[in-house]
Amino acid sequence: MSRERRVYHASVALHAWYCRLDLQCNTCLCEATQDRVSTAHPIVLAHYEILPPDVDDENDYEREVRDNVKTLLQNGAFLRDGGRTNNLANEALGSFCMSYFYKGENALAKSFPDLFADAVPEGAVALAATALAAAINEYKTGTYKQMKFIADLYQPIYDSVIQLYHDVQKDHYHAKKCRAARKKWARTAGILTRDDPNRRHDWGLKLQLD
Taking a C-beta distance cutoff of 8 angstroms, is the pair 147, 55 a contact? Predict the structure, then answer.
């Protein structure tokens, strides 16, 4: 199978993985999705200014938290990194991708090593963005409150990130920067290769024609 076909099938798998819904509740994503939000939680606190460090008054504290959340989520600001605009390059995205997609027994990098070897796939970054947005949004009232991951609420974020990647290809400078960020995250993660003993076994099945 060509690399293009492998990328296509893996991208379909990524999208299907995201879209699996709890059969008991068509509006809530599955337990695996809730696990992504749990992974994102410490990352958003480490990379974004959500909780003010020096505010003693409770009302002022909660108001500042609400303002910080609003600022981060407005126009996808949480996806960018300072300086000349680094679209889809915030280090929180990289931290999540490295932690969730490359580590752990069920990491997708083990199932699709060819797809994840050179750079974090765009679909994986889109999934990371939805998880980060959900984790940030849990502070929108001014205090932390765990929320269900609602498909109708977060699907547009996934779709928008995919569209952003399509749009950025029209600009050589920003396309190069986006690609460089995804390659950097993959290298830093120390991704699994074909020769890694922890890679999932492919069973060596081959078609035999008489």
Answer: no
Count helices and strands in the chain by DSSP H and E runs: 9, 0
Helix (H) or strand (E) holding 93: helix 91-101
The torsion angles phi and psi of 205, rounded to 5 degrees, stand at -75, 135
Q: How many CA atoms lie within 13 A of 205 on its CB side?
A: 3
- Give the H or E element holding residue 36: helix 31-47
Secondary structure of residue 179 in the 3-state scheme: helix
Length of the chain: 210
Q: How many Cα atoms occupy the beta-carbon half-sphere of 38 within 13 Å?
A: 5
pTM of the model: 0.77
In sign, the C-alpha dihedral spanning 44, 47, 50, 53 is positive
- Digit-coded pLDDT (tens) for 158-199: 888 888 888 988 888 888 988 999 999 999 987 443 445 555
Other CB atoms within 10 A of residue 117 CB? 14
Tell me the C-alpha distance between 209 and 68, whole Å: 63
Task: Give first-to-last CA distance, the chain, whole Å.
Answer: 21
Amino acid identity of residue 205, one-letter, is L
